[in-house]
Amino acid sequence: MKYKLQLLVVGEYTRINLFYHSLNLQKRIHRPVLPGVTIGENSIIGANSVVTKNIPANSIAVGNPARVVKKYNFNTQKWERV
After folding, report:
1. What is the pLDDT of residues 4-24, one digit of tens each?
2. 35: Cα separation from own chain's centroid
3. Where are the domains of the chain?
4. Does domain 9-81 have CATH number 2.130.10.10?
5. Residues 57 and 72: beta-carbon distance below 8 Å
6. Which of 4, 27, 29, 52 lies 20 to 30 Å (CA to CA) from residue 73?
7. Model pTM greater than 0.90?
C-alpha cells in the first residue's frame, strides 16, 4: 500500500479529543483529521469528529463532518454560539 504525504497544520495550544470505545484494533482505526486541513490556534476538536475542512483559530468544532459550533469572543471573554 502506498501512502501519499500531505500536510496537516495544527495551531499552537490546539486540543484534539479522541475517543476509542473498542478493544479491537481494526475497529479503532479512525482518521479524525483529513490531510491538507489546517486547524487554527486555541481550537478544540470534539471526540469522534472528522475534520474535513479548515477550522479557524479560537473555535470549537464537533461532528462528522466537523463544523464550528462556538467561537471565542475576546471582547466579552466568553464562548459564543455560531
Report:
1. 545 556 667 766 655 554 454
2. 12
3. 9-81
4. no
5. no
6. 52
7. no
